[in-house]
């Protein structure tokens, strides 16, 4: 039981490049979310999903796309990277109903 | 939209002193959760509060949910160096999206 696995752990992109941050969970959790963490800003919700085929926007969705084709995977796509997207990205999952999120170990992204 | 505000932003205590962080929401919450993040780590779930006026304890940690379900607090009695980290509250009024406060960073000096 690996929990929530995020890849890569570190990434450097040039402005304008695109990439996909991978997130996979093996706990059969229905809910999955992507957060970004910037100094002094806490964790801000980017996108979330309540099940396969269902996604919705969070607080800061611009510049990011998501899809949820399976229960296990919830990739985050950066369409055209900008320096403002330099951040630490966390993926998290939890089961239906009330309960805490299990977080992945994060992806540290730098856009130059 | 829903906003969750947390104070203080930083707290520096001597080991053995108590510590409290406060969380306030602009809207009524269905539940509130607390997380701890160690430096360089990821957030780890501590507890969830659901009922109005609820109080829960975990060893030296006491969590409270306000009567109006718009505020919450975390109190640590007799801090230890292992308590160092950032404590986040996170609220939801839909049961789906969880919105985090900016966190309180706790530094404990031996």
Describe this structure in words.
- The complex is a heterodimer of chains A (112) and B (110).
- By secondary structure, chain A is mostly beta strands.
- Helices cover 0% and strands 52% of the residues of chain A.
- Chain A has no helices and 11 strands.
- In chain A, the strands form 2 sheets. In chain A, strands 2, 4, 5, 6, 9, 10 and 11 form a 7-stranded mixed β-sheet that branches. In chain A, strands 1-3-8-7 form a 4-stranded antiparallel β-sheet, with no helix packed on it.
- In chain A, a hairpin with a 2-residue loop joins strand 5 (42-51) and strand 6.
- The N and C termini of chain A lie far apart (36 Å).
- Chain B is mostly beta strands and 110 residues long.
- Chain B contains no helices and 11 strands.
- Chain B has strands spanning 4-7, 10-14, 19-25, 31-37, 44-49, 55-58, 61-65, 71-76, 85-92, 99-100, 104-109.
- In chain B, strands 2, 4, 5, 9, 10 and 11 form a 6-stranded mixed β-sheet that branches. Chain B has a 5-stranded antiparallel β-sheet with strand order 1-3-8-7-6, with no helix packed on it.
- Chain B starts with a strand and ends with a strand.
- The A-B interface holds A 31, 33, 35, 40-45, 48, 50, 56, 58-59, 90, 92, 97-106 and B 1, 6, 9, 30-31, 33, 35, 41-48, 50, 88, 90, 95-103.
Approximate strand percentage of chain B: over 45%
The major beta sheet of chain A can be summarized as:
7 strands, mixed
What's the end-to-end separation of chain A, in Å? 36 Å
Helix content of chain B: under 10%
Unreliable parts of chain B: none
Total strands of chain B: the figure is: 11
Instruction: Please state roughly what percent of the residues of chain A sit in beta strands, choosing from under 5%, 5-15%, 15-25%, 25-35%, 35-45% or over 45%.
Output: over 45%
The residue-averaged pLDDT of chain A reads 95
Structural class of chain B: mainly beta
Characterize the overall form of chain B. Answer: globular
Helix count of chain A, per DSSP? 0
Class derived from helix and strand content of chain A: mainly beta
- Largest interface, Cβ cutoff 8 Å: A-B, 26 and 27 residues
Distance between the termini of chain B: 41 Å
Low-confidence stretches of chain A: none
Percent helix of chain A:
under 10%
